[in-house]
Amino acid sequence: MPELPEVETVRRGLAPVMDGVRIARLTQRRADLRFPFPDRFAERLEGRKVVRVGRRAKYLVTEIEGGDTLVMHLGMSGRFSIEPPASARRCPLGDFAHAAGGTAKHDHVTIEMSSGATITYNDARRFGFMLLIPTAELDAHALFAEIGVEPLGDALTPAHLATRAHGRKTDLKAFLLDQRNIAGLGNIYVAEALYRARLDPKRSASVLALRNGAPSPRAVRLVPEIKAVLEAALQAGGSTLRDYRQADGALGYFQHSFSVYGRAGADCDNAGCTATIKRIVQAGRSTFYCPKCQR
């Protein structure tokens, strides 16, 4: 499933084509994805202007004029491709995102913008979804009511981690994957951040706080590494695992920089470390770490 950097990369591809532009026509080719499409989906969007394409955690949140927000989730294999207006197809590469792969039979939604650009949502596994939620009710909606702070924002601090982790017995990995603590972190970037911070994923989350509830040195070390690994992934265009693509059809390349994820049995990258990367299973999911460097 795409994680925060992948979703943010897609948002950055869609925003230049959608922000401030009116939806001229929407074609819906099936009744549902993971969930049924909203009632009168096309009718409710056609003719309305997109205020801005945003992101909250792993969701694309597209504000529509008139008080609605289009919430979109990519699921396991969802992708958007963009065909620029005919008048712009000779523009230098980078002005528009161009059409991407994906079998046409899995093209479930097509959005034609008033500019002439066409956006197609393709989802082979149909685990993604699209919802229309009144903007005023968005924060209270079940999808967003308990979502934690954005990891790239100012609200993610050592003090925040300490407050959430104080006295907690759950392991560090589970704590960081809990969307109520930090929004948008998934298995890949939790593994990489813990490696960079030299923290054992099996340790209790309580190590992020001192007895008095203040942030521990481990929390101080972890926060900048979370931000750094996400920023590095954004610079690389995300990680291409299974079906993920950017909105312009390009692959993400951060997987070529993984230090631990998917590298079980490989040598640790740290100079002087003689250990090999280990894989264990926590809560049914693979965990990769260095048993020597991560304590």
List keywords for this structure.
6 helices; 10 strands; Helicase, Ruva Protein, domain 3; 4-stranded antiparallel β-sheet; N-terminal domain of MutM-like DNA repair proteins; 20% strand; single chain; 295 residues; 2 domains; alpha+beta
List low-confidence stretches: 90-100, 240-254
Radius of gyration: 21 Å
- Taken from the alpha-carbon principal axes, the silhouette is elongated
CATH topology of the largest domain: N-terminal domain of MutM-like DNA repair proteins
Count of DSSP E strands?
A: 10
Let me know the average pLDDT.
89
Outline the structure in words:
- The chain has six helices and ten strands, in the order αβαβββββββααααββ.
- The longest helix has 19 residues.
- The protein is of the alpha+beta class and 295 residues long.
- The strands form three sheets. It has a four-stranded antiparallel β-sheet.
- The protein has two domains: 134 residues, N-terminal domain of MutM-like DNA repair proteins (Alpha-Beta Barrel), CATH 3.20.190; 132 residues, Helicase, Ruva Protein, domain 3 (Orthogonal Bundle), CATH 1.10.8.
- α3 packs across α6.
- About 9% of the residues have low confidence.
- It is elongated, with a radius of gyration of 21 Å.
- The two termini are 28 Å apart.
